[in-house]
Write a structure and sequence with these properties.
The protein is an alpha+beta fold. The protein is built from 10 helices and 27 strands.
C-alpha cells in the first residue's frame, strides 16, 4: 500500500494552534506517496479551525479562509447537489471526476472557490463556509465532471436548506425565522416559463433554470394594510397560483370546535375575522368548492394564543405557506418555500421522483399524479400485502424491534411506535441505531436507507426545513408548527 506523506510549506505547523483568525490561515502543501508522486483526492484537515481541503490532481492543497469542511458521507448522495441541514451534499458517480465549487454574489460575480479537486467515486458533504463568511453570497455553482449545477442561498447569508444551521439554538432559530420573514430579498429558483414580474432576474447565472431575487413584501403583501380583527385574529388568504386560477376559483373552508363552519372564495372574502376555537382546520380547493386539487392546514385559537401547523402527514396536493405575525414581534414563515409555488405541479412532482428511491415512486402514481401520498397512508407500496411491506425489516432486526411493521413505522402507529414519538422519529430518520443522544440531531437525519425519503423531501422544500412529514415529526422539534400568545395576523398563501 502506498505511503502518504504531507509536506507543509513555511513551517506553518509550528504556530497553527495560535492562529487567531481565519484570514491569517495560508497553509499550502503536497501529499505524496512513497514513489514521490502526488496523490489526488486526499483530505487534509486543520482540526483547530475545522478547515478541510482536498488535494488536486498533483497532490497539492491549500488551507485558508476560503476552505470549506469536506468529508465523505455514509448516506446516499442526492441525484443533483442539494443543501441539507446547512451542508451541501453531492455525489461523484464516475470512478473519478473533477469537482469545482464556487460561490457567487448577488450580481453573479465569483467571490471564492471552495473546492477544486479530482474526487473519487462516492458521496460527499461540505460545510461551505466558516462561521459568518457566507454574508453577501447568493449562489454556489457546482461542477462535477461535465455537469454543472447552480444552487441558491437565501437572504442574509443563511443556506438554502433553511435559515437555521444544524447547531443553532432554539433562541437563534426563532431569531433567524423572524429574519427570514422580514428580509428584503430571498433567492428563488424557477423555471423559465413561470415567474412573476415582481421579481428581479439575475441573468448572469441563467441556464437550465433562471434565478431571481424575490421580495417577500411582494409575495405576502403589506401586513399593515390588512384589517384588524374584531374577534381574535385576522386570516388573510393569498392566491399564489401564478394566474392559473382566478380569485373566485380559490376556495377556503374553516371548521373547528366552538365555531360555525364558514366558506368563501378569495374574490368575495380574501380575509376572515377568526374567533376562538379548538381542533380547527382550513381546507383549500381550486376550481370549485369541492375541486379535486385540495389541501389544508390546522390550528387552535384559545385563551393561550394561536397554535397551528401546515401538514404533510397524509400527503401533498397544493403548496401552502403561512406567515404568522403576532403582537409580541413574532414574525415567522412555515410551509413550502417560495420556490415550490413557482415551479408548478409537473416540475415539482418531477423533483420528488428524482429525489426519492424507487420504493417511494408509487406515492404519486397511485393517485393519478394529482397527489403525493405519504407512505403508510394508502399508497399501496408499504402495506402488509404490498411490494415493499418488508422495507424496514432489516433495520428492525438490527434494532431488536420484535413485532415491528413497516406501515406502522411510517404511520407512527401500532404497539411498537404508536406511543413512542422518539423511537418512531428515529426509525423514520434512520438514527435509531445511534446512541439516543444522537437521535434528534438534524445532521444525522436521512443519511442512509431505509428511511422516510418522502419526509426528507418535504423538509428540504419547507421554510426552516420544518415539515410534518410523518405523525411524530415534532420529535426533535422538526415539525412545521408554531404558536404565539398574542396572535394578530395569519397570512396564508395557496399555490398551483
Amino acid at each position: 500500500m502506498m505511503t502518504r506523506t504531507v509536506f507543509s510549506s513555511l513551517g506553518m505547523a509550528l504556530w497553527l494552534a495560535a492562529i487567531p483568525a481565519l484570514a491569517q490561515v495560508n497553509l499550502t502543501g503536497k501529499v505524496v506517496g512513497s514513489d514521490g508522486k502526488g496523490i489526488p483526492g486526499v483530505q487534509v484537515r486543520l482540526k483547530s479551525l475545522k478547515l478541510t481541503a482536498l488535494t488536486d490532481a498533483d497532490g497539492a492543497y491549500r488551507l485558508d479562509g476560503n476552505s470549506g469542511i469536506l468529508s465523505r458521507s455514509q448516506g446516499n448522495a442526492p441525484v443533483t447537489p442539494a443543501f441539507r441541514r446547512g451542508r451541501l451534499e453531492f455525489g461523484v458517480a464516475a470512478d473519478r471526476a473533477d469537482v469545482r465549487i464556487q460561490a457567487f454574489d448577488l450580481a453573479g460575480k465569483p467571490v471564492r472557490s471552495l473546492v477544486d479537486a479530482r474526487l473519487e467515486k462516492g458521496s460527499y458533504r461540505i460545510d461551505p463556509f466558516p462561521a459568518g463568511s457566507e454574508a453577501g453570497l447568493a449562489f454556489l455553482r457546482v461542477r462535477i465532471g461535465s455537469e454543472s449545477h447552480t444552487l441558491k442561498l437565501i437572504g442574509g447569508g443563511a443556506l438554502a436548506s433553511g435559515a437555521v444551521s444544524a447547531q443553532a439554538s432554539a433562541g437563534s432559530a426563532r431569531a433567524a425565522a423572524k429574519t427570514a420573514a422580514a428580509g428584503s430579498y430571498d433567492t428563488l429558483l424557477v423555471s423559465k416559463d413561470g415567474y412573476s414580474p415582481d421579481y428581479k432576474r439575475i441573468n448572469s447565472l441563467a441556464g437550465v433554470y433562471d434565478f431571481f431575487l424575490v421580495r417577500p413584501a411582494a409575495f405576502w403583501g403589506d401586513p399593515a394594510s390588512y384589517p384588524a380583527a374584531k374577534n381574535v385574529m385576522t386570516y388573510v388568504f393569498l392566491n399564489r397560483t401564478n394566474g392559473k386560477y382566478a380569485d373566485d376559483q380559490v376556495f377556503w373552508t374553516l371548521t373547528g370546535k366552538g365555531i360555525a363552519t364558514q366558506n368563501g372564495n378569495l374574490k368575495d372574502q380574501p380575509t376572515l375575522d377568526v374567533a376562538a376555537h379548538s381542533a380547527g382546520r382550513v381546507t383549500f380547493h381550486l376550481g370549485t368548492p369541492t375541486g379535486e386539487y385540495w389541501d389544508f392546514m390546522e390550528q387552535t385559537l384559545d385563551a393561550t394564543g394561536w397554535h397551528g401547523n401546515t401538514t404533510r402527514v397524509d400527503g401533498f396536493t397544493l403548496p401552502v405557506a403561512m406567515r404568522l405575525i403576532c403582537g409580541d414581534g413574532h414574525d415567522e414563515l412555515l410551509g413550502e418555500k417560495y420556490e415550490v409555488f413557482y415551479l408548478g405541479r409537473d416540475k415539482f412532482f418531477a423533483k420528488y421522483k428524482a429525489s426519492v428511491p424507487v420504493e417511494f415512486q408509487s406515492t404519486i402514481d397511485s393517485v393519478g399524479g394529482k397527489r403525493i401520498v405519504a407512505p403508510g397512508k394508502g399508497e399501496k407500496a408499504f402495506g402488509p400485502k404490498d411490494k415493499y411491506a418488508d422495507y424496514f425489516n432489516t433495520y428492525f432486526t438490527q434494532l431488536g424491534l420484535a413485532g415491528a411493521v413497516t406501515q406502522d413505522a411510517f404511520a407512527c402507529a401500532g404497539p411498537v411506535f404508536g406511543q413512542n414519538a422518539q423511537l418512531c422519529g428515529a426509525v423514520n430518520r434512520h438514527t435509531a441505531h445511534l446512541a439516543k443522544s444522537e437521535w434528534g440531531k438534524p445532521e444525522n437525519f436521512y443519511q442512509q436507507a431505509p428511511a422516510n425519503y418522502y419526509a426528507r423531501f418535504f423538509h428540504e422544500y419547507s421554510f426552516q426545513e420544518k415539515a410534518y412529514g410523518f405523525a411524530y415529526d415534532d420529535a426533535a422539534g422538526m415539525a412545521a408548527y408554531s404558536e404565539c400568545a398574542k396572535p394578530k395576523t395569519l397570512i396564508i398563501a395557496i399555490g398551483f
